[in-house]
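Continuing from the previous page of notes. For each protein in this section, the sequence appears first, followed by its C-alpha cells. Read the first protein now.
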Amino acid sequence: MEDIALQIGNFTTAAAGNSWGIISNFLIIIGLSVLFILFSYRSRGGIISLLVAFYVGYAIFLVFPYTQSIVASGSDPLTKAVISIILYIACCIVPFMFIERLASGGFGILSVLPRFVLSIFAATFLLALAYHVFHVNNIYTFPEPMNTIFAPDQFFFWWFIAPLLGLLFLVH
C-alpha cells in the first residue's frame, strides 16, 4: 500500500513540475490572453475592435514617414524597442476608438469560446510583432519554446493572419 501511495506521490510531483514548466514557458501568452478576455467584456465589440485596430495600427506604423527616424533616435536596443512600442500603441488608439463606435452596435455578444480564442490570437499577434517588428528579443530572453514558435521568420505570416481567420470564422 505504501508503494502505491509513494508512486502516486512521485507521479503527482512530477506532473506538477512538468505542468509548471509548461505554464512558465508560456506565461506571457497566458497573461496577455487573460488581459484580453477581461477587456472583451468591456463592450459588445471590444475584442473585435481591438483586433481590427491592431491591424490598422500596424499599417499606420509601417507607412508613417517618420517611423524609422523616430525609432532611430533611441540610443540602445531597449530605448528603440520602447519607442517603437509606444509609437505602435499611438497608431492603434485612434483607430480603436473609431472602430469601437462602429462595431459595438452591429455585433452580437460573443460567447465564451470565441472570446477565449480571439484573446489568444490577439496575444500571439502582439508577440509576433514583438519578435519581428519591435525586436524585443534583443532586450529580453524569451524561453526556448517561445523562440521556437515565434522567432522563425516563416512563422510570422501565420501568427499575423491568425486573428483575421479567427474573426472570419468566430464572429457572426
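Done with the first. The second protein uses the same format. Note its length before scrolling.
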Amino acid sequence: MTAPRIYTGAEARALREDAPQSVDLEVATGHVYGSNPSIEYFVRTPGADFAVASEILGARTGMPCEGTARLFAAAPDLAASVEHHAARADGLATDLHRVTMERDGARLSLDAAQAARIKQSLELADARAEVVRLRAALRAASAGRFSDALAAMEEGREAEESGA
C-alpha cells in the first residue's frame, strides 16, 4: 500500500472550487435481482434519480463496498475539513513563532539585566575598596603621619591601576 497523499489547504480549496457545484452527496444502495443477486452501492446528490458514481467497489476485494461509497460521498466535506484545519495550523504556527520571539526577547533582556547587575556589583566592590583605602589614609593623616597617609593613598592608586 502506498503512503496516503497529504493535501495542503490550497490544494483542498482548489479541488472544491473545481467541483461543478456545491456538492452534497449521499450513499444509496441498489439491489440486483436474478440468478446472482447482490447489493450495489452508489453515490448521488440527495433526491436525484441518477448516480454521481455507481458500482462502487472495495479496492482490496473488488466487491461492492459501502465504506468506499461513504468515503467518496464524504470527499467534499473532507476537502473542506483539510482547508479549515490547514488555516488553523497556519494560524497556530504564526502564534508559536510570535511566542517564541517574545520568549527569546525576554531571555535577552534577562541576560542584559544580569550583566548590568554583575557590572554594578563589580563597581560596588571597587567603590568599597576605595572607601577602605581612603579611611586608612584618613586615619594615618589624623594620627599625624602625613607621609604614611600619602603613601597609603599612592599605594591604593597603584593597586587600582594594576587591577584595572
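What the second structure shows: The longest strand covers residues 26-32. The helical segments are 9-18, 66-142, 146-163. We return to this in next week's lecture.
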